[in-house]
Design a protein that fits this description.
Layout lengths: L1 E5 L3 H12 L3 E5 L3 H8 L10 H11 L2 E4 L10 E4 L15 H11 L7 E4 L7 H12 L4 E4 L9 H6 L4 E4 L4 H13 L1 H5 L4 E4 L1 H32 L3 H9 L20 H14 L8 H23 L8 E5 L14 H11 L3 E5 L4 H7 L4 E2 L3 H5 L4 E4 L4 H4 L3 H5 L6 E4 L6 H6 L3 E4 L3
Parallel strand pairs: 1-2, 1-4, 2-3, 4-5, 5-6, 7-8, 9-10, 9-12, 10-11, 12-13, 13-14
Helix pairs in contact: 1-3, 9-11, 9-12, 12-13
Bound molecules: 1,4-dihydronicotinamide adenine dinucleotide (NAI) and uridine-5'-diphosphate-glucuronic acid.
The site of uridine-5'-diphosphate-glucuronic acid has 21 residues, from helix 9.
Length: about 425
């Protein structure tokens, strides 16, 4: 099938390359010339395992190309829109200007019979609004909302083998036809029995934001238990194991620590709250404000632990920060707890030296005042406190005996509860986790 993907960021670039990998003819379009030049040259503009391989394979096969010219979308029949929906400056709502601009550019080249497929995460009601625009601009074209559930770090696998597909379609024959076309786009996943949920626009939009709201709530639930564990001497990791054995609860997404970050969970719960307030139903999901607050309190707690570890005054103390990305296997530092805590520690006068296997360059753009080191050993050298905030395997696998000789003070704060406290304590370290 002939496909265009508008917006080639973390979602769109993976989607475009994966569609080509699945056998479709794909053009990826973005307004960012540098990004398109990189993609066209076969270089992934961000770190995502498996993307370089399918990107190069797609380009070599001739099935994948990239452009900054929306006219190149004209030859496609199915157009995915995957542009950003960040938080507006100074508010909680989603900034819809990129989605609106992308649809307006795309509609200038779309034709009767085309399928316009929204993938961006949007406030409920967006699809209905855009469907009117599509109908009045390109009669006979159909708008569908097909939210995306991929996780960074597993994005290629999640795109090619999703755990479910959700199609938000209009009522009637146009909607039925649209669902059949999407079944063909995702033929390999559909033939493997991937559940397909066909719904109205509002349900499809809400599935996406409620899924992220649930995940965020689960993380904040366990982090709230961590706060209680901290004042009672309980161990939140054991608590999570114990409640996680109940299949109704489940152990996944119950890892207490410095909390969630990234380009999605934080901004999605805020945008959902803002939209609910607009709809006069803010009270229905007011608990998401608490979810957000619990999450942000964990960052403050890490700063407090670091301060306690050095006797109360961070000024001039050398802090070795292990991790900058919002999670391992990603270079994404958007709303990253690790980067946020690094900046808070630097604001308090600490001499922060940070390392990350993939995220240093992106972190440097947001926080040029911090010191970055590519070597773990050099990061640790002379440190008064070591703080682990992104659980990359190379950090989790550190030998506490071997690295003990590098630091000035054997104090470690395990912001992801991913180290073995007994092993670190045995090697002479003062170990502090979160909620244990
Ligand atoms: N990153 C992720 O893991 C996932 C993201 N999403 C959603 O997907 C959307 C995109 O997210 P990301 O890819 O992370 O953002 P991103 O910021 O990495 O990428 C957005 C891209 O859109 C481009 N763009 C902006 N305006 C444009 C326009 N008018 N025409 C063409 N391109 C334009 C930007 O240059 C950028 O390359 C968001 O709504 C996000 O919530 C959904 C699921 C997973
Ligand atoms: O809408 C999106 O963009 C995506 O958001 C999340 O994916 P992602 O942001 O890639 O990362 P997650 O694996 O969900 O982790 C999010 C954050 O929660 C933190 N986390 C996760 C799990 C846990 O138990 N504890 C915890 O603190 C991670 O460290 C990370 O900072 C969702 O998992 C995806 O399904 C969704 O498509």
């Amino acid at each position: 099938m002939k496909i265009s993907v508008i917006g080639c960021g973390y979602l769109g670039a993976v989607h475009a390359a994966s569609m080509a990998e699945m056998g479709h003819d794909v053009v990826g379009i973005d307004v960012d010339e540098a990004k398109i030049a990189q993609l066209a040259a076969g270089t992934a503009p961000f770190f995502e395992p498996g993307l370089p391989e399918i990107l190069r394979a797609g380009l070599a096969s001739g099935r994948l190309r990239f452009s900054t010219d929306f006219a190149d979308a004209a030859s496609a029949d199915v157009h995915f829109v995957a542009v950003g929906t960040p938080q507006v400056a100074g508010g909680d709502a989603a900034d819809m200007r990129y989605v609106d601009a992308a649809f307006s550019s795309l509609l200038a080249h779309a034709k009767t019979g085309d399928l316009l497929v929204g993938k961006s995460t949007v406030p409920v009601g967006t699809a209905a609004r855009l469907a009117d625009l599509v109908a009045s601009t390109v009669p006979g074209a159909t708008l569908v909302w097909n939210p995306e559930f991929l996780r960074e770090g597993f994005a290629v696998q999640d795109t090619i083998q999703p755990d479910r597909l959700v199609y938000g379609v209009p009522e009637g024959a146009a909607g039925e036809h649209a669902a059949r076309v999407l079944d063909k786009v995702y033929a390999s996943a559909v033939s493997e029995g991937t559940p397909v949920i066909v719904a109205d626009y509002a349900t499809a939009e809400l599935v996406k934001v409620s899924a992220n709201a649930f995940l965020a709530t689960k993380i904040s639930f366990i982090n709230a238990m961590a706060e209680i564990a901290e004042v009672t001497g309980a161990d939140v990791t054991k608590l999570a194991d114990a409640i996680g054995h109940d299949a109704r609860i489940g152990r996944r997404f119950l890892n207490a620590g410095v909390g969630f970050g990234g380009g999605c969970l934080p901004k999605d719960i805020r945008a959902f709250s803002a939209r609910a307030r607009e709809l006069g139903k803010g009270e229905a999901i007011a608990f998401l404000d608490e979810v957000d607050k619990i999450n942000l309190r964990r960052r403050t707690r890490v700063v407090q632990l670091a301060s306690e570890a050095v006797g109360g005054d961070l000024a001039g103390k050398r802090i070795a920060m292990l991790g900058l990305a919002f999670k391992p296997h990603s270079d994404d530092v958007r709303d990253s707890p690790a980067l946020d805590v690094s900046m808070k520690l630097a604001d308090a006068g600490a001499d922060v030296v940070a390392t990350d296997p993939q995220a240093i360059e992106r972190a440097r753009m947001l926080a040029p005042h911090l010191t970055y080191e590519s070597s773990i050993e050099e990061t640790l050298r002379g440190a008064d406190v070591v703080v682990l905030l992104t659980e990359w395997p190379e950090f989790v696998g550190l030998d506490p005996v071997a690295v003990g000789s590098l630091v000035a003070g054997k104090r470690v704060i395990d912001g992801r509860n991913s180290l073995d406290p007994a092993a670190w304590r045995e090697a002479g370290w003062e170990y502090r986790g979160l909620g244990r």
